[in-house]
Fold:
Amino acid sequence: MRKSLFLFASVLALAGFAVQADEGMWTYNQFPSSKVAAAYGFAPDADWLKRLQLASVRIAGGCSASVVSPSGLVMTNHHCARECIQNVSGQRKKDFNKDGFIARKPSEEPRCPGMEMNQLTAISDVTQLVQDATKGAAAERFSDVQRAAIAGIEKSCATGDEWRCEVVTLFRGGQYNLYKYRRLQDIRLVFAPEDAIAFFGGDPDNFNFPRYDLDVSFLRIYGADGKPWKTDAFLPFSKTSVKDGELTFVSGNPGGTSRGMTLSQVQDMRDSVLPNRLMDLSHARGWMTEYQQRGKEQLRHSNDDLFGVENSLKAQRGQHESLGDAGFTAQLTKDETDFRRKVVNNPQWMADYGDVWDNIGALTLKAKQQRKILHALTYTNGSVLMDIARAVWRHPVEVRKPNGERLVEFSDARLPQLAQSVLSDAPIYDELETAKITYGLTQMREVLSPDHPVVKKLLGNKSPQQVARALVRGTRLQELKTNARGEPTGGLRKTLWDADAATVAASSDPLLKFVASYDAEARAARKKFEEEVEGPLKRQQERLAQARFAVYGDTSYPDATFTLRLSYGRVAGWDENGTAVAPFTDFAGAYKRHTGAEPFALPASWLKARSKINLNTPFNFVTNNDIIGGNSGSPMVNQKGEVVGLVFDGNIHSLGGEFGFDARLNRTVAVHSQALLEALDKIYPAQHIAAEIRAGQR
Structure:
């Protein structure tokens, strides 16, 4: 599936060569408008970029979205809103993921518990401030010194809880930018189709094309006054259909790429990191599948978890396959050798950077040696209660420290978001929590061995399941009282979060005492990793970035960091082993693909509405925009800044996008904007949503 051109393009990106074709997930403050103009005859100006930036929002849980009306209507993927839909379902004793949801008026729009969106309002370069602070710091102190400097910068920026400020590391330490976000915390559900059409084709079609998915949800942002948020920064839908070859832009928050890694780091990913992740994900899929067979309710409230595991499993399997190609390694070795030779042949560069690759290799080996114990002592396997307990236990201790000395999640700039997560009134399911804690303790015992002091302390003579059951049955950390806006007003969780260290330590809650019993060991493992691996590696990666800038310049794009990026490309199919893959599907194709059996069973609403639909309406389409995980829910716009699509996936070739990009094969998959309006108008009683969207059209 991955041809030699992909491998060559990958190593070009890794080695720092000039960016090829339409490659790149560009930061907004360094977007190459001149390159777009040279290729397509259109240069986005400052006003165009600013409007798109403000209309593109980030879902704090890991997805992208966009504002599409002046009344705060937000468009994202169904799979990005699954947690909200599942939480609302739990509150109302329904299954809106399965059956769909429509609010016919604002009073029917339920709040999404714990959901937050971030609007990027400003970007500033703080490279000099960060690098000056760490200049001369010992390697083992580098992480601490840098954390203190960053915490200070972020605190001076975040002037209230309504703001989030984040210093973003770019080029793996070559640059540092300060991103200032407006925190939007009252998010409500407006519309979600049935799971059967949002994920039509299921796992067999995932990361493939042709596709026939209505992977969309509409949410709404509400202001502090409890009314729909009013804004001029929204994206109108295009009145015309996007055409083959047309210029397209994707604005979203790609989660992370590894295109700036050295050969030793890539080999570690191939031989250790990804195999271990794949094994963990396979085990998780097994126990979660078993859990879902316990009953209808268990199936409902664990669906979002299983979806995430299966999606990650397929994506990371694709990444691993891309690294298993011998040609990839050979070409990467050649290009890194060429890079190093250029450094060696320049006396000044050699003096400044000559040992950086060997240093990173040694630190990569040290990271491998420490990862297992760090993971075992700090990972909670997605248990909401474990995460709450650990945060509640650490909170009074951390907030008494100077801002720059705290664990990063407790810094002044980041604490409000942690508090919102801890004090969310999202439903907690005791049976699922028991299963997650059981699995986590089982994995801990397997990794550390039954004779490890922490394992013996936590389990004693009991099994992981016995311990988990007792913890979940005994804890009262589920207890939380909130008002109509979801703001915490009481309950044990709120009481302990607000308490001092002595009060928290005196609590008899068994889960709190459980996490406290090995917190010292967990902190020690984290500290050891920061001092011996993370800090020294950050320093070496800064040097590697400086070497790359010296040799190749700094006109390329940085690795993705789950921050707002903009890519450009065009509508384009591709050639798959001699067969042309057309860039568009239509509604007629969805009905042809319907078999009546999952995962190819259209929901009843679609079967009933067939005679009303224009079957020639374009459904899904592909472009050669450069994206990665985290771009789900991104708006796709034309050169007028109008929505033409909603990004929800990539093709199978795009899975190697973690390490490189090939414009001939990598494809972004999107729902066509006309498909969204056709479905709202003719399949669902959601004409009011379509009308709200159309009211903003130009």
